[in-house]
Amino acid sequence: MSRPLPRFTHTLLAAAACAALTAPASGATYVGHERQIQLEPPRLTQAPTIDGRVDESEWANAARLDGFTQARPVEGVKDTLGTLCLVGYDSSNLYVAFRCRELPGLVQAPIVSRDNIWTGDWVGVSIDSYHDRQRSYFLCANPRGVQADGVDQEGNESDNSPDFQYTTKGRVTEEGFEVEFAIPFKSLRFAPSERVSFGFNAIRDQRRTNAHLYWAPVTRNIAGYHRQLGDLEGMSGIRPGRNLEINPYVTSSDAAERRSGAMRWADAEHRQGFGLKYGITSALTADVTVTPDFSQVEADAGVLDVNERFAIFFPEKRPFFLEGADIFSTPSSLVYTRRIVDPLYGVKLTGKAGRTAIGVLSAADRSAGESTPGLPDRVNPYFDHDAQFFVARVRRDFHDRLSLGALVTNRTHEDVYNRVAALDGRWTFRRSWTVTAQSSRSWDAAPDLRNTLAGLDSATAVNVPGHLASLSGERAGGWAHTANLRYTSRRFSWNSNFEDITTGFRTSAGFVNRPGTFEIFHNLSGRIDGRKGGRWQWIEPVVRVQQLYDHGEQGVSGKLTDFSTRPEIVVHFDGSTALGTGVNRLSSWYAGRAFEPQFRQFLWAETGRWRTLRPGFFVSNGSTVIFAEAAPGHSIAPEVWADLRLSERFDGSFSMTATRIRRDSNDSRYAEAVIPRLRLGYQFTPELSVRWITEWVDRRRYDENDAQVARDRTLGEDLLVSYLLRPGTVVYLGYGTRLTGDESGPLHASNHSLFMKASYLWQM
Predict the structure, then answer these.
(1) Predicted local confidence at residue 79, as pLDDT
(2) CATH number of the 7-236 domain
């Protein structure tokens, strides 16, 4: 039986590997931790062969990027792993190569599908092609050459949804791994010039130690990632792409539903459509989609909604709406494209001219013309009429610290409309401070059914629901204001957010689920770094304070409805392991009654220490408010999850969320719910995969005598076979079924579905 090497032996081997890191050595060397982060990449006389082998003579004159530093687990620590990046270019491509050292047998390089490389080791680059310190592409690959990409926008979360065309190859070696990139300039957007400059950084992420390294050092003492990028300067003879892309598709689907006690299959539906992308200028891109199909979208995971006061947010997953979504992003969620439920077509213009970013979106939604329960279609003035969506966005970046923007949204459905206009801005000052603000105004016109209902005969009118009589075309409007102040540093961060939404504010194109409220939120967190080689890496103490007020009729004059204070402490260990605990003290006022004080304790942990199993859990327990009964209660809500890596090709995940709510008055149950979900996938090749998902949903309600009064159960099964040659060229085959049941009896199949989709991307 073999024994693990002592810790000091690992250290000596890593140091030796670092010293042994070699590559063709005639190119200039730029050492990141010495702030040598401005470089002129050499123009290569011969393009390197992209085969995952960084040993050919074509790399001899490439610039050598060395001296990487950690951003985590301990900021500023110099690279001890051994990482070298090579950079060069020609008239068509930017070429990048990585040589990464690792201890024998410890490279984590699973064979995964595109955009799912984050469970293992990976390398990548950030390219700020406009050189405006506001936005960048990130283009990454794992040691097998599998790609992942997206867009980083200053002030927003990373957007993994866009897909770009570039070539990568990688291989695992005895010393570690090597990866090569060829990034076509036609895949980037930038202003043409005789000498072009990009913002640039090279990145390495080692899963085993949770080490995340940059060539150009990144520190939390400076607000903004893009302000800290290095520079690729003086590239000549290159031009951005204005390529034409045509992406036709065909789908076929067949569905069955239970009717009159039996499953009945409808006629198969065949559908054709296409997407078109064209670079109108070097910076502006037009996207058009006709009868778009979204059958490849993975189903939303079930959520626990047995005691919710407000709508639940589901993320957008549809490719047409995702691409360029960062341009439409604002401090308030005023563009939420899932409001466009069943688009007939979509047209979009996105890009940047100089320092001005532009986005325009127009779409028709067929779902607005569906039947209204209780109102005959023949008299319904809105039936079979599409809703029209229009969104326009402009943002001006004055320099890397200041940007101002405007947004207009409009949804119309016959005489019904919702219009929103907004102004926003973002300002970074004194190195570590950032303030963001937005002010919005909405105008509404509700449906008007007065003439329709007046013309109904008595036999029809008696069956019309009473609430339709209140739809009289009422006009309304309101305001929404938000402001955020953020301070970041290596040891301390502070975030304060203020949001004021009047009762009349509505956005049919966005997601604002709590009108008529004024909210104040503060988040203070610290960081205490551990000793190198110690038991823990760093500790984060966190305090969150939230106050929520009813807006009131005249300004912010309503009363306090929710107040919470949540101290928490998180300890990070090596092996990507973290443990957190805390308590939430709440006071609530609801339906004229005070619920205070309430205490909820919580505990969570997760670890990435093992390759095959990466588990985690979260559990909260304590007081709650039962909103449907305006009564005090208590609940326990556990959640467990695990990522499964059973082999290099076989992966999966498991999660289970549950809750049990009891009444304080007699300890009787109010509700119970449990949702286990299992996903298993097998990657035959980087292109060909099969994925299976099963999810069980069981919800129960009880009366005050602890007797069950309602139960609904659903079992979902989804099977998907995918062949993804490259973004836009794909074949999907899928099958799904749903079995449902109530409080008694067995489950019955309620629907089945089969579908096929094939698409091909032409680039011209």
Answers:
(1) 92
(2) 2.60.40.1190
How many angstroms separate the CA atoms of 403 and 437, rounded? Answer: 11
Stretch (H or E) spanning 320: helix 319-322
Please give the Cα distance from 496 to 521 (Å, whole number).
6
The residues facing 200 across adjacent strands are 127, 230
pLDDT digits (tens, 9 = 90+) for 419-474: 999 999 999 988 899 999 999 999 999 888 888 888 888 777 777 787 787 888 88
* Contact indicator for 182, 165 with CB cutoff of 8 Å: no
State how far the Cα of 65 lies from the Cα of 43, in Å rounded to an integer: 16
Q: 146: which DSSP letter?
A: -
* Interacting residues of 153 by C-beta distance below 8 A, sequence separation 6+: 134, 135, 159, 326, 329
> Pick from 123, 130, 115: which is nearest to 214 by CA?
123
Q: Rounded to an integer, what is the distance from CA 59 to the centroid of its chain?
A: 36
The number of CA neighbours under 13 Å toward the Cβ of 94 is: 28
Tell me the torsion sign for CA atoms 210, 216, 218, 219.
Answer: positive
* Planar angle of CA 739, 710, 625, nearest 5 degrees: 120
CA distances to 160, 197, 498 from 36, rounded to whole Å, are 30, 16, 41
- Residue 6 to residue 275: CA distance in whole angstroms: 57
Of 236, 226, 200, the C-alpha closest to 215 is 200
Q: What pLDDT is recorded for position 299?
A: 43
Residue 751 structure tokens: 């629907």
In sequence order, which residues have a C-beta less than 8 Å from that of residue 700 and are 6 or more positions away? 671, 672, 673, 708, 710, 711, 743
- β 343-353/356-365 pair status: antiparallel
Predicted local distance difference test score (pLDDT) of residue 660: 96
Q: What is the pLDDT of residue 309?
A: 41
Below-70 pLDDT ranges, the chain:
1-26, 242, 260-261, 282, 292-319, 322-324, 552-558, 743-744
Q: How many CB atoms lie within 10 A of CB 202?
A: 24
pLDDT of residue 291: 77
CB 176 within 8 A of CB 109: no
Distance CA 493, CA 101 (A): 34
CB 39 within 8 A of CB 67: no
Q: Whole-prediction pTM value? A: 0.79
Q: How far is CA 482 from CA 163, 231, 507, 521, 592, in A?
A: 32, 35, 15, 11, 28
Task: Enumerate the CATH 2.60.40.1190 domain ranges in the chain, comma separated.
Answer: 7-236
DSSP codes of every residue in 175-231: SEEEEEEEEEGGGS-----SEEEEEEEEEEEETTTTEEEESS---TTSS-SGGG-EE
pLDDT of residue 751: 82
Structure tokens that stand for 413 in this block: 């459905």
Give the number of C-alpha atoms closer than 13 A to the C-alpha of residue 221, restricted to the C-beta side: 5
CB 735 within 8 A of CB 753: yes
* Residue 716 to residue 681: CA distance in whole angstroms: 16
- Alpha-carbon span 517 to 48, nearest angstrom: 59
How many other CB atoms are found less than 10 A from the CB of residue 354? 11
Tokens describing residue 355: 């320092």
Cis amide leading into 217 (omega within 30): no
pLDDT at position 425, please? 94
Cα dist. 415→40, 167, 390 in Å? Answer: 59, 50, 16
CA nearest to 438, candidates 391, 388, 393, 398: 393
Residue 326 has φ and ψ, to the nearest 5°, of: -65, -30
Cis peptide before 192 (omega within 30 of 0): no
- The owner of tokens 């996938």 is 681
Q: Which residue has the tokens 């327990």?
A: 621
Residue type, 596: E
